[in-house]
Each structure stands twice: as structure tokens, then as C-alpha cells.
Amino acid sequence: MANLNAPSGLSPVMYRNGNFWNGQVRIYAVAPSDTNAYAIGDVVKIVAGADTNGISTVTLATAGATVRGVIAGISAAIPMGGVLQGGPVINPNNLATVTRPAAAQSTYWYVSVVDDPDVIFEIQEVYSGTAGTATSTTKNANFVYAAPGTSNLSGTTLDNTTFATTATLNLKIISAAQRVDNVPYTLGQRWWVALNNHDFSGGTVGY
Question: Which of 61, 74, 154, 176 could hold 43 in an S-S bridge, CB 3.0 to 4.6 Å?
Fold first, then answer.
């Protein structure tokens, strides 16, 4: 059975201690001048500055960059009673909005980010080249960013050309995703990974 080619970026699964992810996130801002497209499952990094409420700003992370976490929700700037006051991460004027467009915006947008360094995520390996093997499970790897597809989820995948022991690589492989619909060591396989070069914990070498 072939693996389904359906990237969705990084999806939180559990903590390193074995407990399931409890849904906890932290709010970060995306500056109006940022021209990147953002989707749930994208990886972000900190940039200098903050919005008028003192919320730190982030931008899309790049391969090898130190990262802050993974987007779990996206919101256009909303008024009192909204995200800044503890309300839902939604756009009340358009509940179908789940991505930020790839262009500068007139105001800040906000993203809820899974920024705990102990969270383990699931990510699809890129559906090309040579699939990772058993020896890849002890390595690190980078991700490849891609804009959201028709699913409106992140198109980011694990770069199977970067498996190595290098400490600066983005992702630390934990194991192949243990699900009946995942075929290990074939194209499009899904991996369970931790963010290796997280702001809150230093990157370590693979084995």
C-alpha cells in the first residue's frame, strides 16, 4: 500500500513523556509588512519587535533556523473580546478564514503557536527522491516549506535529502508514525519528530 501524498505541515501528537498533547498554545503576532503566506502546521521563528500590546512577532522559519514553534490557529486582528482578551482564535467576520494571505496586510494578524519544546509532531516526508530508511530514525533533518494547498493546511514536509547527525538541523527524528495507514521507509511516509533547534532548548547531534 502506497502512502497518501497529503502534506499538512507539523501536527502536534504528544509530549516526550508519553502524554497526549493537551492543546496548549501561546499567541504571537505577524507584522503587517510580512508578505509570507501562513497556514496551520507551519513552523515559525521569532523576529525582533512586538505589536502595540507587547505580543512578540514571528515569521516563517527557514531550513536550519532556530525556531519557536508550530502554528495551530490563525486569526485576523479582531476587536475587544477577541484573541487579545482571551477569546477564540478566529475571524468573526469570516469564520472560513484559516490561512493568512501571501501579501502585506493592513494590520497585525495573530497565530496560536505550539511553542513547548517537549511536544512531538507528525510530519510527512517529501513525496520524491529516496525515502528515509531504518538508519534515518536516529538522525536529524530539515523541513521544506511549501505554501498551503487546496486543503488550506501547511504544505511543509520533511526533506529526505537532509538526514544527518548535524545539530543545527530543524527536526530530530523520534520514530516512524505508528499508524496503520503509514508505510515506513517508502515515499510519503510520516515521521514523529521533535523541534531540534528550538529557542527554548539547544540543538543536539543525531546518531
Answer: 61
Helices within 2-81 (DSSP H only): none
**CA distance linking residue 11 with residue 20, whole number of Å:** 12
Q: 113: burial class by Cβ within 10 Å (0-12, 13-18, 19+)?
A: buried
d(CA 62, CA 144): 8
Q: Are 36 and 43 in contact (CB under 8 A)?
A: no
| Segment 183-198, tens digit of pLDDT | 999 999 999 999 999 9
Q: What is the DSSP letter of 92?
A: T
| Nearest alpha-carbon partner for 163 in 175, 155, 173 | 173
Amino acid at the residue 180: V
